[in-house]
Description:
single chain, five-stranded antiparallel sheet, Beta-lactamase, 491 residues, alpha+beta, Peptidoglycan synthesis regulatory factor (PBP3), Domain 2
Amino acid sequence: MIKKIMAFLLVLLVLFSSCSSAFAAKKKDPAPTAEPIPQPTLSPDAPDYDKEHPENLSADQLYALSAVLMTQDKGEVIFEKDADEIRYPASMTKILTVLIALTFADDLNETVVVSENAVNVPADSSTMYLKAGEEIRLIDVIYGTMLLSANDGANVIAEAIAGDIPRFVDLMNTTAQTLGCDHSHFVNPHGYHDDNHYSTARDIAVIAREAMKNETFREIVATTSYQLPRTNKQRSRTITTKTEYMLPGSEDSPNKYYYEFATGIKTGSHSHSGYCFAGSAAKEGVELISVVMFTGRKARWADTIKLMDYGFSQYVSVSPVDLYNMHPIQVSTLNYSTSDLDNGKITLSCVPKGEDVQIVTTKTDAKRMADNLDRSFNIEFTRGELRAPIQAGEEIATLTYRNEKGIIYEYSLIASRSVEKWENAPRSLDEIIAETNADPNPFPSFSFEFALVLFGPPLLLVCAIALLVFYHKKRGAHKMRAPRPVNRYVK
Length: 491
């Protein structure tokens, strides 16, 4: 019995010794932790930002070390701050990855198999928890990659599109060069730090703008919550974005960084890149793209909102009709009724003949175009002399606009009201012709005016000839009746 007790105590001693050694080893060699992400601050000399006057934004009012703002339609740069400085894009890289997937994938609903290599990502990576051997649709991987910033998802996309990651990276660099991103170089599809994986705020904005031309991409980045279906390895689950810029919050917990005009796009962060964000927004027809790099965790939202508000304070979206209505054309008519209160003047209304078009431009340029309609558009009058009567809706002129792509848009300038003719005005030649053409009788209708026009000239000619004949006869007769001379010497 004593031997059994001694053996039991010996086992406990060995176990205690092993646990102590393991605990000591753990204290001596702690597990590596991620490096802290820097949080830039504003310069103490920066002026206070006035959100009531976003048009006064200055570069030193942004936390970001690099930033750019451009229009979606033409890519015009509205605001920039060290936009060409080489920086690390972090997970904003996934914008390019998904753009390539949407461009080259044959079928987004195709089922792909997750490889062991795809899920082999650094321990501090953000993932969508894919498992080797998992069978999942490509579109679901794309949603997970964007909403969860999943590095494993980006790897799966790369292998599905190009066969392996190195070939996909080559495709990334080729695509970037094609878009004119000469200051970018990528070494992986997800953006995990590598000294040779870099870009600029301007290049990322160019890539984001190109991606937003794809309707499927726009749908994906505008999504805040998505249902991942069941796979052979996992149950169905709902994923949600952590992009505060797009989350309205609730009454109990409002989100002050929510931007009501937000439409996307993608975050990024690590210790070498700081916090980054490529954003998009749309308001009253104006669409903008912004990028902030090396800013703070919350500051990336504040910086983006400042940029977007600045852009919307500078740009408007107007149609040729809007511009025309700022200074509509007024014409004067002839032969108008004496009872016309506007003395025969008509304001012409502008109506599209077909498809209308929106012109995104600065407020200054919009005013300049409206003030110079004849230079901004081609205006041609379709009627010669404007004589009453004129009917409301009658086309008086045409307006033509040619955009920067050479596409032509046509508009009718029509009478906004009717104008009656002068009550006692004689009919014009055009009216006589129109009445004649409208008369089914092939012969002109007989009237005093018609008789006067038809028989007047010949009658006058006959009268003139008769008078001449009468005059000559009378003169001849006068000569024949001349008196004889008197011979005074005849007795």
